[in-house]
Amino acid sequence: MTRVKICGITSPEDAVECASSGADAIGMLVDVEISPRRITVEEARQIVSALPPFVASVIVMTPSTPDNVIEAVKKVQPAAVQLHGDEPADMLWQIRRQLPGVKLIKTIHVGEGDEIEKARRYESAADAILLDTSSPLGGGAGIVHDWTISRKIIDTVRLPVILAGGLSPKNVRDAVKATHPYAVDACSGVEAKKREKDLRLVQEFIRQAKVIT
Question: Which of 37, 129, 207, 213 has the most CB atoms lying inside 10 A of its own CB?
Fold first, then answer.
């Protein structure tokens, strides 16, 4: 069954509601200046503390240095870190050596070209790949990319692949059928307005994503 991550969470209340609705993971954009959903390290720590057992917490970052990630993880204590910028594989290795118990997810921006080659560079450094749509905002723009490219990456890369990019309750079932990802990730597609999740949309997204096909 496809797993579900709800990203761009900005409050403990939204996090708990999404978890109660069946989300497998909760994503928080920590100090991502370009995003309207950015939160501070302290806010992320409060969200993680509010989550029930067995719901994974993921902090999304575009760090300048490995130390940025290491410091945030020590304060927040997430299960995983999603590196959402142009971080080289060597940076992931530096982070892994300091944080051996934390899973590392590397975002590949689909639409920039050479996506398969880029994804394969991280096969030994990352624990999973996330495919998001290339955009000026770096993600969270509600734009769908070419799922045929995503399917090729999923079939080629020897890592779990999380599909993101413009997913909503209306298209997530088709996305799962077309690509067969390890998990799907929604942000703007389950919002009533920016920074606030719509619980009805979250529940419907999760229901559609987890339909066994």
Answer: 129
